[in-house]
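Re: your question about histidine kinase

S., sorry for the slow reply, the queue was backed up all week. Below is exactly what I fed in.
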Amino acid sequence: MKIRARISVTFLAIVAANLVVFSLVIYFISEYFRQKHFYTRLGDKAKTTALLLIEEDEINPKLLQLIERKNLTSLPEEHIIVYNQQNKVIYASADTTGDLGPHNDLLERIRERKQIYLRRSNREIAGLTYTHQNQEYVIIASAYDEYGLTEMAHLRTILAFGLAFSLTLVGWSGWVFAGRFLRPISKVIHQVDQIKVSNLNQRVDVSDNNDEISQLAHTFNSMLNRVQEAFEVQRNFVANASHELRTPLTIITGQIEVTLIKQRTVEEHEAKWKAVQDVIKRLNVLANNLLELAQVSLDDATMKFNEVSLDDAIYQATKMLTTRRPDYHVIFSFANETEAMQSSLTVQGSISLLISAFLNLMENGCKFSPDNQVEVILGADEQWVTIQIKDNGIGIAEADIRHIYEPFFRAENAKRIHGYGIGLPLTYRIIQLHRGEINVFSRINEGTNFLLKFPKTL
Ligand code: ADP
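Result:
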């Protein structure tokens, strides 16, 4: 069932329950007062009859019958019977006693309780005792409350029609208002439905009132911003990756074509093939980096972590770097000597990924510094292991800092130095996987300081 129908039905059910209870209460209270009023009249009638019959000697039953028949105030279908102490009828207003004939148990009950009111097939009956000269008489008066019952029938009709009319009105207005209140949601659904890959920049309208629906629209828009951003990063990634792969392939093709134009000496061939080999090596590095980035971008849950000593990972990364580039230099120190040296530098992680991250940062530091030198400062406290990787190189412009973790981003001042812009995004993701933090402080032409923090294994 749709929300609109659910709201309307719930609203209708609540109002219907209230109205039905209210109508029943009105009906039964009215019925109670009708009966009470009629019983009073019946009782009065019975008492007057007894008074005339028993206490006035001049009035005999025949005369009383005559008086009653001519009495304009008598009740509809009025029937009065008087019994003496021996339960003998001494007076009956009509010739027959009808269903009020001598029911001894009824007479006993009246004598017992002195006064009784009951209803039998639409007739109200009042029974009471009357004592005169030590004789106890029983008078039973019955009549049909024509006026009262007609009024009650009218009340029933009014309540039934009123109920039906009110519920129709409530059902209709509930449906209309639920529709009106839900219209903005339907609008949001419709607008979100229209957003496809081709128009990801489209947004949902946000109204000025700060209600739940405008918050929902706002949330959708924030989500769309993130989706669009992720989509664009992905698109740029694919475009950049293809570009970076195509460039070396074009160079290789060019080199081979030039070589094949004419006959070459062995030395010339060697030189060309060496150049081609260099390009292939770089292509290999790029392919490996891309693969690594794709792997660490997978779900964290697939990663297997062990205890890793960070000083060991840094040592191995340094060895790899200096073996590859003997002209690069790495200087070690401890931030807070005694504490960091004594403290454990172990974290939960993957040693190969951590080596890869440190290698990238150290290589960048050396690569982007004229002195090809980087300083690694290790520190630790109760909860964290910190590593600073500092250089005195070209630095990063403030505006570029927020882009350096985007794949293929290369700052303008770094473009003359070879690179692909994959190392930092890879490093960032690796630090993220280790629940660590990475921050960079840099000034153009003064140097760069990458500050890493890893939570300690307790
Ligand atoms: P690459 O080193 O291949 O260019 P990275 O992803 O490692 O790619 O770095 C991205 C960019 O960040 C670099 O091109 C450079 O502009 C900037 N950068 C990173 N490290 C440094 C650094 N130590 N000094 C100056 N710039 C840096």
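Residues 75 and 331 are 121 Å apart (CA to CA). The radius of gyration is 52 Å.

Happy to talk it through on Thursday.
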